[in-house]
From TrEMBL:
GO molecular function list: GTP binding
Domain G, residue spans: 2-137
Protein name: G domain-containing protein
CDD domains: DLP_2
Matches recorded under Pfam families: MMR_HSR1
Transmembrane segments: none
Gene3D superfamilies in UniProt: P-loop containing nucleotide triphosphate hydrolases
SUPFAM superfamilies membership: P-loop containing nucleoside triphosphate hydrolases
InterPro entries: GTP-bd (IPR006073), P-loop_NTPase (IPR027417), Small_GTP-bd (IPR005225), TRAFAC_Dynamin-like_GTPase (IPR051943)
Length: 148
């Protein structure tokens, strides 16, 4: 399971849509992802409740089946943003991280590696997860000086 995490408005959902090749998940400047979205392969697009390994339905997670061939091999998880006004979003994200095989940590180039991001990365490292850092919104930087 590949799990995408980061602060709200870091561009996680935009990044996920870029990976999928189409706009499947909602994007916006306000926190838009309120549930964990577990993206899986399905011949037709559909949403449904997420049933955990023990057969229990998780209220804060949904399964989204998409006709994206590479999702046959892995699941991609879009999480609510951390450091959002809605503290429940961060708690939801923290519950899913221990289940991840790898974390894609998205940070925004206009405010990379804030103190709260550093704290969150330390928490992730305590779970001994592999982390890939994605610097998003690089195209919004104005000058060559900003890009260095």
């Amino acid at each position: 399971m590949v799990t995408v995490v980061g602060e709200f408005n870091a561009g996680k959902s935009t990044f996920v849509n870029a990976l999928l090749g189409e706009r499947y998940v909602q994007e916006g400047i306000l926190p838009t992802t309120a549930q964990v979205c577990i993206l899986k392969y399905g011949p037709q697009q559909k949403k449904g409740p997420h049933i955990d390994f023990d057969g229990e339905e998780l209220q804060d997670a949904i399964d989204v089946h998409l006709p994206v061939p590479w999702l046959e091999k892995i699941s991609l998880v879009d999480t609510p943003g951390t450091n959002a006004v809605v503290l429940q979003h961060e708690k939801i994200t923290q519950r899913i991280i221990p289940r991840a095989d790898i974390i894609l940590f998205v940070t925004s180039s206009d405010r990379p590696f804030t103190e709260s991001e550093r704290v969150f990365l330390e928490k992730i490292s305590s779970w001994h997860k592999k982390v890939v850092i994605v610097v998003n919104k690089i195209d919004l930087l104005n000058s060559e000086k900003d890009k260095n």
